[in-house]
Write a structure and sequence with these properties.
107 residues; three-stranded antiparallel β-sheet
Length: 107
Amino acid sequence: AARERAADLAEQAARAGADALSPVSLHDADPSQLSADPTAARAAALSVLAPAGITDPSVSIDGDTVTVSVTVHEGTQVLSLVGISQLSGSATATAVALHGTTQDDTG
């Protein structure tokens, strides 16, 4: 469960970061030149992770690509009876800023 939660949070945060596009790249005539605004992308990713209690994520931005790595710690109930009070799961997700569609959907 911790691994699944980590994957879900990493994906959500990466998508939020990739949506934080640079205003300069939005005004570029070439949609292939979209890029994430590094400051805004990091803030957007962290705003997804903070309410979930993720304290030390890794957020990297490279042009139009945002990669987020997180570790989730979850307390146990039954396993605590045998001395295992916490399980951890880690995940990394990457999202890319896209402009419009890349396929002709007329047919």
